[in-house]
Amino acid sequence: MVKKLLSLATVLCLLAGCATNPNKISASYVSPVTYKNYDDDQIIMEMDHVSRRSGELYNSLKSESSKDTGQMAVGLLLFWPALFFLEGGDGPEAAEYARLKGQYEALRTVAVQRKIGAEMLPASPEEVVKELASTSRGKTGGSQRNR
Question: How many domains, the chain?
Fold first, then answer.
């Protein structure tokens, strides 16, 4: 009984060390007042920068999360000492991703307040992620067709 409890506690501790899926990372609060002195062009440029950086971080965090999930599966099914090699937890990239999501929300709030047209706004971080995913699938799909 004690061995089962100890092994369960160990597995739970190791699970807590896995990287979080970026879809589950919530936005940090950023006040829209931060951008009150920006003109319309600056808001649009900043939104574009935040969107692109968010997309890059999303892919990096998604990759790290997938690696940790794979290592956990191998560790639990085949070789438990492999669990000690999990990189563990969310690092500074996850914190930056949460901050960027908050910045985008603040910028979007300011854009709405200033009545900047939707056609002027750059793609949202979610759209950038979808675009990057479809681009990478297109490259993979194209190389498989040539074989």
Answer: 1
**Domain-embedded: residue 8:** no
Using DSSP's 3-state secondary structure scheme, residue 21 falls into coil
Q: What is the pTM of this model?
A: 0.67
Alpha helix positions (H), 78-117: 92-113
Q: What are phi and psi of 117, to 5 degrees?
A: -60, 145
Closest to 73 measured CA to CA, from 64, 83, 65 = 83
Domain limits at 67?
A: 39-131
Does residue 19 contact residue 92 with C-beta atoms inside 8 Å?
no
**Separation of alpha carbons 80 and 12, rounded Å:** 13
Half-sphere exposure for 117 (CA within 13 Å, toward CB)? 2
Both tokens assigned to 20: 């979080």
Residue 135: count other Cβ atoms within 10 Å of its Cβ: 10
Domain assignment present for residue 25? The answer is: no
Look up tokens 């929300």; give the residue.
Answer: 105
Q: pLDDT tens for residues 84-120?
A: 655 555 678 888 989 999 999 999 999 999 999 888 8
Distance separating alpha carbons of residues 9 and 43, to the nearest angstrom: 48
